[in-house]
Amino acid sequence: MSENNFFKQARANFFAGLALVLPSVVTVAVLIWIFHNVSNLTDTLLFFLPGKWTHQPLANGELGPIHWYWSLVALAIAIILVCLIGRYGRNYIGRKTMEWLDHTIMRVPLMNKIYSTVKQVNASFSSNKSSFKQVVLVTFPHPRSRSVGFVTGEQQGLGPEKLISVFIPTTPNPTSGFLVMVPESEIVKLEMSVADGIKFIISLGALLPEHPGQVSSPLDREQVHPVLK
């Protein structure tokens, strides 16, 4: 085997192995990242235990990072507490207590703004209906480009034409993005499920639905176009 053929074969094997290993590595890395960030909050639940039990000792006698298995214990305690609070909040006394707590927080300056915003966002995403109603194409970020977005609501009374709230996620991390208000006539609706739309975003546009169907524009309901062909 010549040297060129050897390097070509090695390169092909490397990229083939990378395609097989990368999804698992990224998945594990994301789970570790989530666990690390969550544990920074839940570890405080172990305040009643001596630090020398839960933390690694350092050479100078100080306490180092917490042992990972104690972080798991703290996470389990947090889950149990949330379940207990949820069960308590479902009965009459619990509901009245939560109403009193809600009313008290809403009377605290600054805190009420943050609390009400977080509560509205949480209610939006925890409702039975999906917060994302439709996958669409919109003109963004400049007139000659199109971006995939998700319809989140309709706004009336902000202008002569009804405006549609569209969330345009970033890729490959769809948890951040841009919220734009687009006239209904300028939106192109895709016959694509929300799940397929999210996959398309995360995959950097590499994964199209198996049966993408067609798109329709409010400007011409009779006209259809192939999806991203």
Folded structure, characterized:
This protein has 229 residues and is α+β, with helices and mostly antiparallel strands. It is 45% helix and 22% strand. The chain has 6 helices and 9 strands, in the order H-H-E-E-H-H-H-E-E-E-E-E-H-E-E. The chain has helices at residues 3-42, 51-54, 68-88, 92-105, 111-126, 194-202; strands spanning 55-57, 63-66, 134-139, 146-155, 163-169, 177-183, 188-190, 214-217, 220-226. A 7-stranded antiparallel sheet has the order 6-5-4-3-7-8-9, with helices on one face. A two-stranded antiparallel sheet has the order 1-2. The longest helix has 40 residues, at 3-42. Mean pLDDT is 80; it is low at 217-229.
Features:
single chain; 229 residues; alpha+beta; two-stranded antiparallel ribbon; 9 strands; disordered C terminus
Q: Topology of this structure?
A:
Layout: H1 3-42, H2 51-54, E1 55-57, E2 63-66, H3 68-88, H4 92-105, H5 111-126, E3 134-139, E4 146-155, E5 163-169, E6 177-183, E7 188-190, H6 194-202, E8 214-217, E9 220-226
Antiparallel strand pairs: 1-2, 3-4, 3-7, 4-5, 5-6, 7-8, 8-9
Largest sheet: 7 strands, antiparallel
Main-sheet strand order equals: 6-5-4-3-7-8-9
Helix tally equals: 6
Helix content class: 40-55%
| Strand fraction | 15-25%
- End-to-end distance: 41 Å
Which structural class is indicated by helix and strand composition? alpha+beta
The arrangement of helices and strands along the chain is HHEEHHHEEEEEHEE
Q: What is the approximate shape?
A: flat
Low-confidence stretches: 217-229
